[in-house]
Specification:
- 38% of the residues lie in helices and 15% in strands.
- It folds into two domains: 128 residues, Aspartate Aminotransferase, domain 1, CATH 3.90.1150.10; 276 residues, Aspartate Aminotransferase, domain 2 (3-Layer(aba) Sandwich), CATH 3.40.640.
- α15 crosses α16.
- The longest helix has 18 residues.
- The protein is of the alpha/beta class.
- Pyridoxal-5'-phosphate binds next to α5.
Length: 453
């Protein structure tokens, strides 16, 4: 006889069993044998469960731009949850959503006036790609469905994002991808020419002119949008330059193609400005944002877009919906409160200006590692830097992984890994001492890595 189903009230596992949680982008078996658990955080540091102090070299995950746990942001979130825990933004709304949208549009270049809120960078990208296709469909140009990305770009993990994204490992197990996303611009980087350049390197226009080739191949009337990170972030920090982005803008304008900047990393001070669009003097048609908009406290993302795109969606009939798209948690009150307090905090602490001032400090610190063992290239822009290691033969990613683990276990430093590349993206409050310590810790670890091959 089969026993009737009865949910057990007695957990079969201990509360701190590591088995159930499947960590993303992580080798779970190894992690669970060698866990790295962070228990609390303040400013530039985490504490683990034993009270060990660990320097955060990557601002959480490129999101805690103001350092961990600023009091004003935490208090704003706490107040908000008491006042209004939730309100829908489908057909109804609440005041802080309008306030934050206005503030974010105010940070974006003139002409980008409206904000669609989502909950993550991945959703911001999907939203922008869907808006691009729907914009042309609404104009009677439904043949414009192609979406052009760039090699080595990261645009999150949803189907649209991995399709336009240019990181092979994020794509290859999940096909077939979205139709019309096969074409990618080349990464404007050539190791022989550009390795060890401090900051932006010189490259010719051919990287942007590739867009002309793609237009020639398919016809402009099939292309809806080009999406690029102004600076490649998760793919290993590859700087870009003003002329390149300007040329992309010109070619898009020539053929009526929308230009989308994915500023999930480059927004909110990482490059010393509200958005990288301002640093590079190029106005895209849409900007995707997420991460640092709430200083990492509450998930939030969104798309800032032009008046022209927004107006094209508005309907004549009072009851007609503009766009069949949105999330239960679009404009969540806690995220809105966190965003408003975060923008106040960044402004009051002059953090964007501070990032601009600290850029040369980070640059000097990482380029001092040029002669360290295993180093293949060093790149930096804004408050982001990459130390690329030579991969071990037959085992790409192994040397970088070991370096990351050793940084944590032996040097009390959290770094990010992209293949064999170690990435630093400190909070914008980082001082010279802390930046120096990050570089020193990496130097020590590189000296201890086995030679292997
Ligand atoms: N776009 C860029 C440029 C990113 O760097 C990221 C995340 O690192 C994303 C999109 C995806 O954001 P999320 O992880 O919040 O979905």
């Amino acid at each position: 006889m089969i026993a009737p189903y009865s949910p057990s009230q007695t957990p079969t596992k201990t509360p701190n069993d590591l088995d159930a949680f499947w960590l993303p982008f992580t080798p779970n078996r190894h992690f669970k044998n060698h866990p790295r658990l962070l228990a609390s955080a303040s400013g530039m540091y985490y504490l683990d469960q034993s009270g060990r102090k660990i320097l955060d070299g990557i601002a959480g995950l490129w999101c805690v731009n103001g350092g961990h746990s600023p009091k004003t942001i935490i208090e704003a979130v706490a107040r908000q949850v008491q006042e209004l825990d939730f309100a829908p933004c489908f057909q109804f709304a609440h005041p802080k959503a309008f306030e934050l949208a206005t503030r974010i549009a105010g940070l974006a270049p003139d002409g980008l006036e409206h904000v669609f809120f989502v909950n993550s960078g991945s959703e911001a990208v999907e939203t922008a790609l869907k808006i691009a296709r729907a914009y042309f469909a609404g104009k009677g140009e439904g043949t414009r469905y192609r979406l052009i990305g760039r090699e080595r770009s990261y645009h999150g993990v949803n189907f649209g994002g991995i399709s336009v994204g240019g990181i092979g490992n994020n794509r290859k197990a999940f096909g077939p991808l979205i139709p019309g996303t096969d074409d990618h611009l080349p990464l404007p980087y050539n190791h022989t020419r550009d390795a060890f350049t401090e900051g932006e390197y010189k490259f010719d226009d051919s990287y942007a002119e590739e867009l002309e080739r793609i237009v020639g191949l398919h016809g402009a009337s099939t292309i809806a949008a080009v999406i690029v990170e102004p600076v490649t972030g998760s793919g290993g920090v590859f700087p870009t330059r003003r002329g390149y982005l300007q040329l992309l803008r010109e070619i898009c304008d020539k053929y009526g193609i929308l230009l989308i900047f994915d500023e999930v990393i480059s927004g909110f001070g990482r490059l010393g400005h509200g958005f990288a669009a301002e640093r590079y003097g190029v106005v895209p048609d849409m900007i995707c944002f997420a991460k640092a908009v709430t200083n990492g406290t509450i998930p939030l993302g969104g798309v800032v877009l032009t008046e022209k795109i927004y107006q094209s969606f508005l309907q004549e009939a009072d009851h007609a919906i503009d766009i069949f798209h949105g999330h239960t948690y679009t404009g969540h009150p806690m995220a809105m409160a966190a965003g408003l307090a975060t923008l106040d905090y960044y402004r009051n602490e002059n953090l964007f200006e501070r990032a601009e001032k600290m850029e040369p400090v980070l640059s000097a610190a990482v380029h001092a590692l040029e002669r360290a063992p295993h180093v293949h290239d060093i790149r930096n822009v804004g408050m982001a830097a990459a130390i690329e290691l030579r991969p071990e033969k037959e085992a790409p990613g192994k040397r970088g992984y070991e370096a990351m683990i050793r940084c944590f276990e032996e040097e009390d430093l959290v770094v990010r890994l992209s293949g064999d590349t170690l990435v630093l993206s400190p909070a914008l409050i980082a001082g010279e001492d802390e930046i120096g310590r990050m570089a020193e810790a990496i130097h020590m670890v590189l000296g201890r890595l086995p030679e292997n091959n």
